[in-house]
Amino acid sequence: MGDLNQAMIEKYRTNFLKEVEANVEEGEWVKMCMQCGVCSGSCPLGKFWDHPPQELFMMIRAGKRDEVLSSDSMWMCTSCYNCVVRCPRELPITHIMHGLAHYAKRLGLVPESQPTAAFAQMFWDNLMQKGRVNELKLGLKLYFMNGFGDGIKVALKHQKIGMGMLKTGRMSPMEAFGGHAVKDLKGFQSMIKKAQELEDQRIAEHGA
Amino acid sequence: MAAEKKLAGYICTGCGIGERLNVEQMRTIATREGKLGACKTHPMLCGAEGVQMIRDDIAAGEATHVMIGACSRRSKMEAFSFPDAAMSRANLREGVLWLRPDTEEQKETTQEMADDYIRMACAEVRFMTVPSASGEQELNKTLLVVGGGVTGMTAALEAARAGYPVHLVAEENHLGGVWTDLYKRVPFRAAAADVVGSKDIDLPQPEDPGVDALAERIRANERITVHLNARITRTSGAPGRFSADISTESGGTVTENVGAIVQASDFKPYDASNLPEFAYGKSPDVVTNFELERLAKDANGGPIRRPSDGKEVTSVAFIQCAGQRSDKPGHLPYCSGFCCTESIKQAMYFREQNGADATVLFDDLRTPGAAGEDFYRSGQQAQVTFSKGKASEVVSENGTLKVHFKDLILNEDTAMDCDLVVLATGQVPNTGPDPYAQLAVEEAETEEEKDAARRKLENAPPSILNLDYRQGTDLPQLKHGFVDSHFICFPYETRRTGIYAAGPCRRPMDMKQAMEDAVGAALKAIQSAENAGRGAAVHPRVGDLSYPQFRKEGCTQCKRCTVECPFGAINEDEQRYPLFNESRCRRCGTCMGACPVRVISFENYSIDTVGQQIKNVDMPDEFSEKPRILALACENDAYPALDMAAQAAQMGDGIELTPFARVIPVRCLGSVSLSWITDALNTGYDGIVLMGCRRDDDYQCHFVRGSAMAAERLSKVGDTLQQMQLETERVAVYEVAITDIQRAPQLINDMAATIEKVGMNPFKM
């Protein structure tokens, strides 16, 4: 995807705001931000963000493409919608955050080992295999994300919940071996394929 | 006074007066002590029947001087309006009843208060005469509008529309003034409300400036005479009979007689050569917001080209507050209030006509006016980039400009390249020399101040009105060269009666506001001309026929009245006696307060009308434990505040006034004669409270300087007290606003507490 990134840089050159408007979901709203800072003040996780939404919007206008797209900030959004409710200009800030994250992912600019991004990828890969989420596999993979030792520790910590779920039939250990699929797995996969084609086409027309 | 004085009193027994006070006793006091010929009572004096009773007595010649004991003089003004009689009013309802608790043990002191107010009102009316116009008045409906800009044109059109002929004088050879080059103007209207779907549909866009259309309407209007290339070389007279010499560049002079004048001299664009840091003058591609309009007009809808090489502009930066809101020498310390919307508009030119990147570097973006915030959104929608940043330097290198600025959101020093830089420069008032500049040099206390005042005097701009008043050629100024005018309470009033300031010469503003201002000033000018025709005062004592008269034989030619009159109403005659211009006079009485020999008086307001009120109270002896506190309250703010306190008390607010207070309204604290203070102390008053309006830069004094003059004079009252071996705490001067409802009575109550501490006045008679 590095090519796409290069193509975008060349296409929009000076105007990152235009690039965001054309490529990011709800990106056309960014120009309407009036920099009041209510979003940043409202964000419950704001203090953990490198750049709160107001600042991201300012950086977009200032043409700070690399800093914005490779930022960790928009990945921190938990979709609480506090900012959307409070924005006096009624910007869909939450959606713009996800839009930015999505666009950064498309361009291959996500910071390495960004946990939200890593989990999203894990979830997607898991889903694609059988057309449904295999909770046991997803859970285990998540436990062992940071190595074997750490995984054992987390697993032991959650032992009680796991046993309870087994007992009540909420989770089958058999799922660890392949696991069951949706009824029409082929159909599901071709549906996803078609969606991907449509998306690529859209990007070819508007984006790159 | 040829006719015999017939004094008659009328006491109302309504509104609880009859129930709580001994009316019979007050009647006796009015006739015996007050020396009234008769005193009637009525259960509802302000009703049709009661008013008719008074009218009949006046008509029958039974009453030439009327004392009314009822509510405050500020209540029922329409009912108790008898133009053929002199009138005083004892404030029994607000002044006594409502501010006093209705209890048995308070009954005695409350009654004493009411009795005194009757005594005072009787004394006051005895020393009044019926006000009548001087007979010098003339009605001249023609107005003079000075300034051919949008403000002046609007004022002229509005006056003409109301039926008043206008002389419009423009310095330039065309109409339009500073806005002549305007390509488009900031929209006058907000977005339509409640647009379904989105707030951002149908936002206001830059619109036709309308300057040419305005000029066309002026030319087509037969009531308006336009004088181009012309200046006013002399203005003399007074409202109703101004005479103005209008001289054209070619040397011709015509003299026109007018009733009132509107000064709409607008502003001069700030001189950007004071801004070398932004490369103004070094690079032709750094222009001011005013110069940009010319470039946009030349482009006429096509791409705007930069001046240096005619290249189409692809990126432009706007530097807001250029040379403004800054204390640096040569900069304007104030905000000009129009440049933010102006820059948004101009940035939109570039977005639309050039497709260029347009960045507005602002510190505080403010968008006053109807379109305001909507217009800002309009700019955002057009993808104008708004960066909160402070520009420090513009560098020209190899055909591009580099703007260095501090990004205030991202907190970093950064720079941007562009083809053109627009400096959002401000408005410098186009006014004449400060008439008090010479006085400022004389009065300066330090050498530094003296130097500054002298520099101002030497660099004074040419006069605009050339008034032949004793107090200088032009309208007095408040700050930064803007014409003095109270921006909220009485915006068009200046300190020269009959001359009204409109538009940016009184404070910086945009075109829409200037046009609204012009309408207001035109209407005030019409009112002034009409009132002058009747010999009546204008704001704030609208319709007052009394005017200052003086006893020539007593005058010592000290000139204090001519110097201190805030309105320049008093000239000097050949023998150097004061020459009062009653139609320039606002009836504040500042001259009366200034006069050390007490020779100035009004028919219904004089040293005696107040002095006799002070004397005619029943003064209990030193051992009675009943002190007397005199409160002189300005009728514009302090007295209404006390009335409103009474209304609040009536509604159960718990406000009380000490029963030892005797409140006398004065026209302005500036009219207070020091003789009243010494007389009061000699008579035995234990404390004196003086309440005037807020003074100095944020003044609320309706006569602008009256309150300040009073403060200056009263600053020396402490010496008088010491000479009399009295405690200086016995006299207190306060600034009271009309909203000080709790505070105004409290200040008087505080004095009562002070008297308890320092003891009674030993000079009781």
From TrEMBL, chain A:
Assigned keywords, A-Z: 4Fe-4S, Iron, Iron-sulfur, Metal-binding, Oxidoreductase
One Gene Ontology term of the molecular function aspect: oxidoreductase activity
A UniProt-annotated Pfam family: Fer4_8
Origin superkingdom: Bacteria
GO cellular component, one term: plasma membrane
Domain 4Fe-4S ferredoxin-type: from-to ranges: 20-54
Protein name as annotated: 4Fe-4S dicluster domain-containing protein
Protein's organism: Thiohalocapsa marina
From TrEMBL, chain B:
GO MF entries: 4 iron, 4 sulfur cluster binding; metal ion binding; oxidoreductase activity
Claim: Oxidoreductase is one of the keywords in the record: yes
A Pfam family reported for this protein in Swiss-Prot or TrEMBL: FAD_oxidored
Domain 4Fe-4S ferredoxin-type: 546-575, 576-605
Keyword line: 4Fe-4S, FAD, Flavoprotein, Iron, Iron-sulfur, Metal-binding, Oxidoreductase
Signal peptide: none
Listed cofactors: FAD
Family from the record: Belongs to the HdrA family.
The protein's name in its UniProt record: Hydrogenase iron-sulfur subunit
